[in-house]
Design goal:
- This is Pentacotripeptide-repeat region of PRORP domain-containing protein.
- GO terms for molecular function: RNA binding.
- It comes from Lactuca virosa.
- The protein is an all-alpha fold.
- The chain has 37 helices and 2 strands.
- It has a two-stranded antiparallel sheet with strand order 1-2.
- Helix 9 runs antiparallel to helix 10 and helix 26 packs parallel to helix 28.
- The chain is elongated.
């Protein structure tokens, strides 16, 4: 059995330990030989790390001060601080407190909310009420924040009742947090009601309402609140106000207000990094690259967000060389900037450059995220790069990039556009989480590959499982009906869009319906539909007219074809496809003189036929060919191979020999 320490030994030991702590904080020659409540509190105020806190706590416990109110406040506050503390340790201290005070509860609720443990914050609030403590205006803001993130509206209303009972109903700090909660819940009208009833508003009140409208995509209302704020002049717009309002300007393409805000910033409040970033982003997305670049060049401290906005601005305007130059000059590159540049290459069909940049990204040990993968898979889908797309799929598996609904949708689309519909189905059925987009993707994929019955079967399953189709889903469904010539079913789905799902049919849906009727030879019915389509802009009707014109060629309806061609020529006279379709309609009924007239008219009007384009993937590289283009470096070998195939096919036809056998003999 270990010898028991005397009182003198304990005091001596603590004094030595305390001396080491004291010398860390004091440069004077004061001597605190025996630790006291006062000296412990003083050390806690100057504590710098969890290790020091634990040493001081040991002294406090041994001295019998473990339930001292001042000591508890300091211990919990330090350990709950996310920058230096440990929330798990703070909870251990909290659990040992016999009667926690309101202040300690507030510290813990705030800490859990800040660290995104929202459920735990609400449980502590309930525990506080059980302990007989009444919340104050420091408790509610973090409780309402947790409710907003958990999206529990009923709990929010219940706790708002406590606010009324506690007399904090009109406290500005509390009202701001209630408004923020309603904004998170999407109940922006309730947020506005709270705002209108507030006797006093500060800048945060205005900012919360504006950002709430932006979150709910009510951009006009957000702008109106900003204008009201400027008009009332009780509170001046600040950084947060400016940033939120500029987001609304971007969505509305309201360049005029954006410029007015720019002027206000320049003359009244000055630039900050966040305001500079927001202005650069606004001008880029409104197409004013030169002004964005001027602001960008003048910003003294450019962070990676600013570089990304500027690069994305050049990308969206198709200025890939300028974007790449800026990208290369950026001193810091995060995954968002890399993905923006890769996405830019994909957007403008420079898939090889996108893949090269991805390889460079790996050299710099930048870990790609799902959005990088989606951008690359989209590029592979565009050019039919099956080998590259399959490699990306394997890369995702190898590097444990989770194939969620977003990545799954991109993989389904890539495999479908490369003709591997079985792989698309394999990916779809392997998804642990499916959303409307993934269901839509597989339905469109099956429709694209002629699997109409399976596409419609999956659409029924989608509805049975409670997924709500969107307007893109119905494009896939109507295309499936069109390819399967399922006229009655197509009509039923088209009419259900508005009657069942409250989706207003767009021009694309009318185009699918016209194509369905046209393929079935119901040209008169299709013409009636065309004449009923609302005419907002003539240009929007081009796909519909073109679909019906193609049907006229298929069924040789010259009169309707001529009428449609005249309508199309008035809208887009320079489109060669219109003239070629009309020429083909004449050719289908043997009216060769009319074919010649169409071609002469094309030459006279300077309309040139768009050259046909095809691509082929060889050893992971995609090669693209245009009709009449002889610029390929191996064009002589290509034509030699084509001539050889032509001769062999002629021999096959003449002597009834399989081409495969003939090629193997010649080899």
């Amino acid at each position: 059995m270990a010898p028991k320490l005397s009182n003198y030994s304990i005091v001596t030991f603590l004094s030595r330990q305390f001396y080491h702590l004291r010398t860390h904080y004091f440069s004077t020659t004061q001597n605190f030989l025996i630790p006291t409540n006062k000296t412990c509190i003083h050390l806690l105020k100057n504590c710098k790390s969890m290790n020091q806190l634990k040493q001081i706590q040991t002294q406090i416990v041994v001295l019998g001060l473990a339930q001292n109110v001042d000591a508890i406040k300091k211990l919990v506050a330090f350990s709950a601080d996310p920058s230096v503390g440990n929330l798990f340790y703070a909870q251990k201290i909290f659990d040992r407190i016999e009667t926690p005070s309101l202040l300690v509860y507030n510290v813990m609720i705030k800490a859990y909310t800040k660290s995104a443990h929202f459920r735990k914050a609400l449980l502590l609030f309930d525990q506080m009420r059980v302990d007989g403590l009444w919340p104050d205006n420091y408790t509610y803001p973090f409780v309402f924040k947790s409710i907003g993130h958990l999206r529990e509206a009923s709990t929010g209303e219940k706790i708002r009742g406590f606010v009324v009972k506690s007399g904090d109903e009109f406290d500005c700090y509390v009202c701001n947090s209630v408004m923020d909660m309603y904004g998170e819940l999407g109940r922006i009208e309730d947020s506005r009601k709270v705002f209108d009833e507030m006797p006093e508003r500060d800048s945060v009140s205005w900012n919360v309402l504006i950002s709430g409208y932006v979150k709910c995509k009510k951009f006009e209302e957000a702008v109106n609140v900003y204008l009201q704020m400027r008009e009332e002049k009780s509170v001046k717009p600040e950084e947060a106000t400016i940033v939120s309002t500029l987001s609304a300007c971007i969505a509305l393409k309201n360049l005029e207000l954006g410029k007015e805000i720019h002027n206000y910033v320049t003359h009244l409040i000055g630039f900050t990094t966040k305001i500079g970033n927001a202005l650069v982003d606004m001008y880029c997305k409104c197409g004013c690259l030169h002004i964005a670049r001027q602001i960008f060049n003048k910003l003294p401290n450019k962070n990676v967000i600013c570089w990304t906005s500027m690069v994305s601005g050049y990308v969206n305007c198709g200025k890939l060389d300028d974007a790449r130059q800026l990208f290369d000059n950026s001193p810091v590159k995060d995954i968002v900037l890399w993905t923006s540049m890769i996405n830019g290459y994909v957007q403008f069909n420079h898939v090889d450059e996108a893949m090269t940049l991805f390889q460079q990204m790996q050299i710099y040990n930048i870990k790609p995220d799902k959005f990088t993968m989606v951008a690359l898979l989209t590029g592979c889908a565009q050019v039919g790069g099956l080998k590259q797309g399959t490699w990306i799929h394997e890369y995702m598996k190898e590097h444990r990039i989770r194939i969620d609904a977003v990545c799954g949708t991109a993989l389904i689309d890539m495999y479908a556009k490369c003709g591997c519909i079985e792989k698309s189905l394999e990916v779809f059925h392997g998804l642990h989480e499916k959303d409307t987009a993934s269901w839509t993707s597989i339905i469109c994929a099956l429709s694209l590959n002629g699997k109409s019955s399976l596409a419609l079967k999956l659409f029924s399953e989608m509805n049975e499982l409670g997924f709500r189709p969107d307007d893109i889903t119905f494009i896939g469904v109507l295309n499936a009906c069109s390819h399967g010539r399922l006229v009655e079913e197509g009509w039923k789905h088209f009419e259900s869009m508005k009657s069942v799902y409250e989706i207003e049919p767009k021009i694309e849906h009318f185009g699918c319906l016209i194509d369905l009727l046209g393929r079935a030879g119901l040209l008169k019915e299709a013409e009636k539909i065309v004449n009923k389509i609302p005419r907002e802009k003539d240009e929007m009707l081009v796909p519909v007219y073109s679909a019906l014109l193609s049907a006229c060629r298929l069924y040789g309806d010259v009169d309707l074809g001529e009428d449609l061609a005249d309508r199309l020529s008035e809208i887009e006279g320079g489109d060669s496809s219109i003239h070629m379709l009309l020429a083909n309609i004449y050719a289908s009924v043997g009216r060769w003189e009319d074919v010649k007239k169409v071609r002469r008219k094309m030459r006279g009007d300077g309309v040139r036929k768009e050259p046909g384009c095809s691509s082929i993937e060889v050893n992971g590289n995609v090669y693209e060919f245009l009709a009449g283009d002889a610029s390929h470096p191996e064009m002589n070998d290509i034509y030699f191979s084509l001539n050889t195939l032509f001769k062999q096919s002629f021999v096959c036809e003449k002597y009834d020999v399989e081409l495969v056998n003939l090629v193997s003999i010649n080899s």
